[in-house]
Write a structure and sequence with these properties.
2 strands; two-stranded antiparallel sheet; about 110 residues
């Protein structure tokens, strides 16, 4: 019975890794943030509060709501793009290139 439990635990751990990896590669646009056009036709980007909290909570932070509030107060998705352009040295990076994994790494680096 113990061997079966270990096998099941290993299977679940592997499945969790696959799910996490797929989430990390998921595009942030449309998941963590979304575009909104104003009356002048300009597009701005806004965080999806619930998804930001969900991702931060998945990293194991007990205070995910507070961290999300701080992130969404002091930065915008466009700020995130500028940060990643500087970090990767890719000035041509577009907002569509940002992934959930990049966002997670930024959270880990700051908090």
């Amino acid at each position: 019975m113990k061997k079966q439990f270990i096998t099941e635990a290993a299977r679940l751990q592997k499945l969790a890794g696959i799910i996490t990896e797929n989430l990390d590669n998921q595009q942030s646009l449309g998941f963590l943030f979304y575009p909104e056009e104003d009356e002048d036709g300009m597009i701005d980007y806004f965080y999806n509060k619930d998804k930001v909290i969900e991702v931060i909570r998945s990293l194991g932070y007990d205070d995910a709501e507070e961290i999300a509030k701080e992130v969404m107060t002091i930065s915008s998705p466009y700020d995130e793009l500028e940060f990643m352009r500087n970090k990767t040295g890719d000035p041509d990076m577009q907002i569509e290139d940002l992934t959930v994994g990049m966002f997670k790494q930024g959270i880990k680096d700051e908090f």
